[in-house]
Amino acid sequence: MARKPRIEFAGAIYHVLNRGNYRKDLFDSAGAAQAFVDCLFQACERMGWRLHAYCVMRNHYHLALETPQGNLVDGIHWLQSTFGNRFNRFRGENGRAFQGRYRAIHVEPGLHLARLVNYIHLNPVRAKIVSLEMLSQFRWSSYRHFMRPPSERPPALACDDWLQAGGGLMDSAEGWHSYREHLAWLMADEGRQKAEAFDRMSQGWMHGGAEYQKTVADQFKQMTVAQDWGGGEIREMNRLEWSRLLARAMKALGQAPENIDAARKCEPWKIAIAAWLKEQTSVTNRWLTEQLKMGPADAVSRYTGECQRGQRIEAKLLLNKLTTKVRG
């Protein structure tokens, strides 16, 4: 039986979660957990996501994720496959890092999102991994970032909406003090956690009120009939954007379209442009090799990875030039 398509639309919010393959401890070391967090923030930058909360446990992760461009599927695919490839290279292993299909539960903005954020932030406390008093020191959670001034946080993190909806709080020292007190209030009584639906946060297809559920369900019916509702159009828009940025990057490096066929597959300027596009967008290796004539798709991944690690010095210098001088 074919899998049901994901419901994707601009501005959708999801509770995304998945576990290590065979439920094994995927994030059993600081290096593995940090590698996933690094991939997560790279995915946010590439996809233009707003990240309301995240938590990485030993064998699974939770995200409260907003997709302004309606690109959940492309983004989670990139996140999990990129982390999986890095994980396998580091461990000398093969195979999937994650078990089957990730879960993506729709969340209504406002109070329902605020409750999800509370659930994610309290996950390591409820699992007795860390005490509430030490939660701000837990390295694999968005909570510790929110305890810092906004200027010191990763750009993708967002809190204004759910702070306001969850208790009328502001992104200020006083607001975060009140938020910590609210989490302590929740932890003091399991009944309060149940009232906020903690026991159902990883179940179902939607967390929201009846009217919002009806709206999204109607959208899902349209999508099922159209098969590619919200997908084909977005993919075409993406290709147009990739082409526009490719033209800008080539102009910035003084390259004309006719130079593509004449240049080597591993020409430094080709690698630099491919690496830059991969940093800025959800561009695929297949599209890059078709446009830049760089050989097999896996070669694009290898070339750009070596460039980003500084192993291809000339390409890295050109990448730095694009990063500092070219804007979308």
Report on the architecture of this protein.
- β2 and β3 (60-67) form a beta hairpin.
- With 328 residues, the protein is an alpha+beta fold.
- The chain has helices at residues 30-47, 72-91, 111-126, 143-146, 160-167, 173-187, 190-195, 210-226, 232-252, 259-262, 268-280, 285-292, 297-308, 313-325, and strands spanning 12-19, 50-56, 60-67, 103-107, 206-207.
- The longest helix has 21 residues, at 232-252.
- The radius of gyration is 21 Å and the shape is elongated.
How do the strands and helices of this protein lay out in sequence?
Blueprint: E1 12-19, H1 30-47, E2 50-56, E3 60-67, H2 72-91, E4 103-107, H3 111-126, H4 143-146, H5 160-167, H6 173-187, H7 190-195, E5 206-207, H8 210-226, H9 232-252, H10 259-262, H11 268-280, H12 285-292, H13 297-308, H14 313-325
What are the salient characteristics of this protein?
alpha+beta, elongated, 14 helices, 2 domains, single chain, 5 strands, five-stranded mixed beta sheet, 328 residues, Alpha-Beta Plaits
